[in-house]
Design goal:
The structure holds two protein chains of two kinds. By secondary structure, chain A is mostly helical. Chain A is built from ten helices and no strands. By secondary structure, chain B is an all-alpha fold. In chain B, helix 3 runs antiparallel to helix 4 and helix 3 packs antiparallel against helix 9. Classes of the chains: A mainly alpha, B mainly alpha.
């Protein structure tokens, strides 16, 4: 117990680091994922090809390899940024592939008739998109996006091993200080559980409010 | 064409022309981007002979191959063990005895909610285990519990009538599972199992972080060699395609199995989504034993 009380500030710093990583990477992943999903359903062949390549490659890349390449590789091109930013880029790009697939399958669940009906009412492309297709897609997309973001929060642990401040990395300092290593890990585990349970609860609320049972 | 989405009509001649224009513009943009990257690579002297010579040495090639072998070894152990653990946990979750079900549910939910890396580090640091067993144990715990959910979903997805008919014939629960539900479930969930194995293969790269001498570790050794002018980018350019290619091969196999199944009328009814990581709270422990 005193592992936590003695080093509360260290734990808090790590915890906030993980939260920060998760939030920023989620935003990046959502934006990139939306972009790639719109590429993947675009009527232009080459855009579809970009989206497909992006998703196929990133979904099959081990995240450690991606971290390795981004954190240690990009500085070779003279691009020097804080490690946290690199970690956000790596996590965000990796997760965007999964978000993209979730969004795309969400858009594909909207029946074709909905779009046809909207167009025959004279709606423009923008109107069809924003008031007919996306609201319906949004509902089916909530659970898969939620579980993808939970996976993102868990994957952020890898960043700790690349010397980014986050929760898992705190174990190193604590074991050097000679605290009981098992309790150290228990509190780290509790920290991760808090984060994943929060995301899960958040998406449960979202689903209750907007989701539809199909 | 994307005739399956509700977003677009079938394009007319003018729209097609416009789309072609967009296509040309975006292709040009990609080509420019790729060209810029290649220019950067040349500009930072990544293609100098000095940086690529190490790959010609036998020792280095053997080092890489040994790393790849270690990666595959860890994957093989983790795959087999997590299938076994998944089977056991799924049996627990499908059990008729409430305490067994509770314990299995607790284990499955806990290991799915923990980051794999935390488990691996815990086993490696706190329990002071060698890197390979630590990696395999961590991967097994995580993938095993995800697979348990896949198995459970598979068994539950089999048509109710099958189970009822089997019980009505007087089969016992074990017989119902092994002779009736199991084989039908296996067919439906094979793609989901294989795509979970892709996750396991990807996650073997976590061994790099606990100094297990796998593929990435071998790459790092070469990349940090001053004699060859720190050939980091060449190493990534060699390692990444092999690693990604392996995972793609396995994913492609999963897709191929899934496509074959879809054509097969016997498995038409059951459709199991690939296991999503950690959907906590969304699914309460159901009581599958009650029919």
């Amino acid at each position: 117990m005193d592992v936590l009380t003695d080093n509360f500030s260290l734990y808090a710093e790590g915890f906030l680091g993980t939260v920060r990583l998760t939030v920023y990477s989620s935003l990046l992943a959502l934006v990139l994922g939306f972009l790639m999903a719109s590429f993947r359903v675009a009527p232009v062949g080459s855009l579809r090809a970009i989206g497909t390549v992006w998703v196929t490659v990133l979904r099959n890349t081990p995240l450690t390899l991606l971290f390795f390449a981004v954190l240690l590789g990009l500085p070779r091109f003279g691009l020097v940024l804080p490690f946290t930013v690199f970690a956000v880029i790596a996590l965000g790009c990796y997760t965007s592939a999964f978000i993209c697939e979730a969004l795309r399958s969400g858009i594909n669940t909207v029946p074709t008739g909905q779009g046809e009906a909207a167009r025959s009412l004279g709606m423009s492309f923008g109107q069809t998109l924003t008031s007919v297709v996306l609201p319906q897609a949004f509902r089916t997309v909530i659970p898969p996006v939620g579980s993808t973001l939970i996976a993102l929060a868990k994957n952020s642990a890898i960043a700790g091993a690349f010397s980014v401040t986050e929760l898992l990395g705190t174990y190193k300092t604590l074991s050097e200080l000679g605290y009981n290593i098992i309790w150290t890990f228990v509190w780290i585990a509790v920290g991760y559980l808090i984060i994943t349970l929060t995301i899960s609860a958040l998406f449960n609320v979202l689903e209750k409010r907007y989701g539809v049972a199909r | 064409m994307t005739d399956s989405t509700a977003l677009y009509d079938i394009p007319g001649p003018r729209t097609r022309r416009r789309h072609r224009l967009y296509g040309i513009i975006s292709t040009a943009a990609i080509a420019a981007l790729l060209g810029w990257i290649v220019y950067l690579l040349f500009d930072t002297e990544q293609f100098t002979a000095e940086k690529w010579t190490p790959f010609e040495y036998k020792g280095i090639q053997e080092l890489l191959l040994r790393g790849l072998g270690n990666t595959l070894k860890a994957f093989a152990y983790a795959a087999v063990l997590s299938l076994v653990l998944g089977g056991i946990l799924a049996c627990g979750r499908l059990s008729d005895h409430r305490p067994v079900r509770w314990v299995a549910t607790l284990l499955v939910e806990f290991f799915r909610a923990m980051p794999v890396l935390v488990m691996i580090f815990f086993i490696f640091v706190a329990l002071k285990v060698q890197p390979l067993p630590a990696l395999v144990a961590g991967l097994t715990l995580y993938n095993g519990s995800v697979l348990a959910e896949v198995f459970r979903a598979g068994v539950n997805s089999v048509d109710r009538g099958q189970r009822e008919a089997a019980y009505a014939l007087g089969l016992r629960k074990t017989q119902v599972m092994t002779h009736v539900l199991g084989p039908q479930a296996l067919r439906a969930m094979l793609p989901a199992i294989i795509s979970q194995l892709v996750v396991a293969l990807k996650d073997t790269s976590l061994g790099y972080l606990i100094t297990y001498e796998e593929f990435l570790h071998a790459g790092k050794l070469i990349a940090s060699n001053l004699d060859y002018d720190l050939p980091f980018i060449p190493v990534v350019m060699v390692i990444a395609p092999i690693y990604i290619g392996l995972c793609m091969l396995l994913s492609w196999f999963a897709n191929w199995v899934a496509r074959r199944q879809r054509r097969n009328p016997k498995t038409k009814a059951a459709d199991i989504a690939p296991a999503e990581p950690g959907t906590l709270l969304t699914q309460g422990p159901k009581a599958p034993g009650r029919t």
